[in-house]
Amino acid sequence: MLRFGCPQVVIDRLDPLVNPGQIPSPHMHQIVGGNAFNATMTKGDVSGAASCTTCSFTEDLSNYWTANVYFKARNGTYKRVPQGGAALQFNDKFSNTMKDGILVYYVSATPGKITAPKPGFRMLSGDPTLRTAKSNMKMQNCYRCYTGPNFGGDNAAPCADGKLDTQKFPTKPCLGGIRSNILFPTCWDGVNLDSPNHQDHVAYPTSGPANFLSAGSACPSTHPIKIPQLMLEVVWDTTKFNNAADWPTDGSQPFYLSHGDNTGYGQHADYVFGWKDNSLQKAMDTSNCMGASCAGLKSQAVDVAKKCAVKPVVNEDKEGWLKELPGMAMPMV
Predict the structure, then answer these.
(1) pTM for this one?
(2) Do residues 166 and 134 make contact, with C-beta atoms less than 8 angstroms apart?
């Protein structure tokens, strides 16, 4: 299991998968990884186009992005919720100190039997239009409310515990923040590097979305090639927004995904593969490989990683209190 942190390379209203070439795209994203990220990166190998990465493994020039989360105050204004580092039960200095980023997991339950994606590979997990519970999404995307301070979590597998995990936003203040987990499909058709909806060329195991600790589930005959279990994890630092006096008077919760969803069901993420050479395949073939040190992969310090950046293309206020969510009738500044 590779587990490593990636600080943001940029926050911008771009989406080269769903809205290639569109500037700006409909809603805001937080993007991590290589500095080749741009609005038109729809084809080819991105590892050769990037000169640096925000990820702790320098061979990983991939890009990963998710919707941002915003807090809506009683006066109707919105504020972007920052991200914390990792849950503190893990001894990972890079991830625990990175702030404003994403934790990335690649898991192989059967070393030597997992095929790493190829250059040009892309995929999307989740459905941004979803506003109600969907049974087959139960173990795909979830939230966990941390009840202790300092992002104090637990070791229970993500999206696997009906008591700890929910498909929708938590409905009460979370003293330690809110953790998001997004699990990508683990089966590939072996032919197509992408598909029109960025989902049809991949599939979940026949047993449904896989638990990241048991990624060896059987693949359907239409998608016979097992790929690593990719999971993204974000700890949203909601601790500054836990004052009950700031929450809606009707008892509803005040958080919104950046595409206007205040249910949380529309959580989604995008992935563009960009590992150098065969570095990911080598790591997936290595037994007893855990955490942020594995298979000879080169790592970098968090302060070095944070120097890798992409200049924002869409000029919008990303830190202040906003009258509208970006993309929803908010004028450019």
Answers:
(1) 0.93
(2) no
